[in-house]
Amino acid sequence: MLHEKLIRDIEQVVGPAGLITDAERMQSYLSDWRNAYSGKAAMVVRPASTEEVAAVVRLCHQAAVAVVPQGGNTGLCGGSIPDQSGAQVVLSLTRMNAIRAVDTGNETITVEAGVILQNLQEAAAEVGRLFPLSLGAEGSCTVGGILATNAGGTAVLRYGNMRDLTLGLEVVLPDGQIWNGLRGLRKDNTGYDLKHLFIGAEGTLGIITAAVLKLYPAPRSTTTAWVALPSTEAAIELIALMRGQCGDRLTGFEMMSRQSVEFVVNHVAGCNDLFAQVYPWYVLIEVSDTLADAGLAQMLETALADAFEREIVLDAVIASNETQVAGLWAIREGISEAQNHEGPSLKHDISVPVSSIPAFIEAADQRLLEVFPGVRIVAYGHVGDGNLHYNISKPVGSEDAPFKAQAEAIMQVIYDATLQFSGSISAEHGLGQSKREAAVRYKDPLELQLMQAIKTTLDPAGLMNPGKVL
């Protein structure tokens, strides 16, 4: 059989340690961490080098077998899960986990795709630098995965998303060729910037095997505050005020609805309400500086005092030590986990212009509650870049199945509101398989035609992560 020959040929490339064909051992690669998506595979291949990746891809290309690239498998849209045919090859990059080079003079670090984000952060810290991208899955997500989805996280406001943090890539193309674009250049005006084709492409155009990423001076002082607000409009006013008074020291500005915080308080150990009174909205603000004594606490207090006078802020507390800072971030990072305790949640990762956030939330909330009375709306996100996680939990006491059956209709209400405010149906999670059909309805047809043309040019056989994005 074809697969038997392919298995033998691939084993010659990666060795026994790089090949999994046993059904039980393959299981962890065939479903996502939420068990929302699952599939089957002919085999799981775990190459240990770029050359091995290229050789495996060439063999699959010659055999007309589809390849599904996979990193830490922490995605939310099923982008790294094979289909149900059992004919696809899952190619896991987790063995490619080397820090290849650190160049403090150029403020760059070169890493392989399987490096876990937290290990990348620690490698930067060891040389007194900062790799600023941070998100809830940083202990398990990998560089390849966060590049493939152009992840953002909590510090986009100051440092940008993964696209902004990347200078060069190494990519195995669908036919097995290796494009070596590992250049640590901040200026290279010699034509099309090819790396941007692969960032955010979710493995549909090629497999990212390594990257040159930007480093920054490590902050030596940080101050964090938890602030209560009367409305989302107040959040937009407050971030403008903070930017005006703190400049680029403003590193994080995370907004959370009361429902979001309530779930965390009810379900995450050690997280409690910080104010005696309940407020409709909260923000977590973080400012940082490379100076050890930058006067950040005074700066933040001054800005918040101004906000109190303008009646933008209702209450506030500034963390006085690292334990309190960790406690504040635990509330923000605990929302997704806490929502799972309330039954199935329908997760939506949208973006709109920052100024449109209040109007979007008002329109989407109103329409949802009209059509689906009792649903609980868990809205939170990175206000500075317009990215909202707009998640829906079932009404109290209702059954799971009827709620899940409404997922498509609920999604349409949210995406219609997103389109109304010139937004995007995916801000940082990608399209994967969950939003592929929605993209047809909500993206400009010409954009989709151009995307398909690029896909056809680079992957004419359609073997690279088929069924995802397009």
3D structure, described in words:
Helix 1 runs antiparallel to helix 3 and helix 13 packs antiparallel against helix 15. The protein folds into four domains: 91 residues, Uridine Diphospho-n-acetylenolpyruvylglucosamine Reductase, domain 2; 119 residues, 2-Layer Sandwich (Uridine Diphospho-n-acetylenolpyruvylglucosamine Reductase, domain 3); 116 residues, Alpha-Beta Plaits (2-Layer Sandwich), CATH 3.30.70.2190; 104 residues, Alpha-Beta Plaits (2-Layer Sandwich). It has 17 helices and 19 strands. A hairpin with a 4-residue loop joins strand 18 and strand 19. By secondary structure, the chain is of the alpha+beta class. The longest helix is centred in the middle third of the chain and has 15 residues. It is 36% helix and 20% strand. The strands form four sheets. Strands 12, 13, 14, 15, 16, 17, 18 and 19 form an eight-stranded antiparallel β-sheet that branches. A five-stranded antiparallel β-sheet has the order 5-6-10-8-9. It is globular.
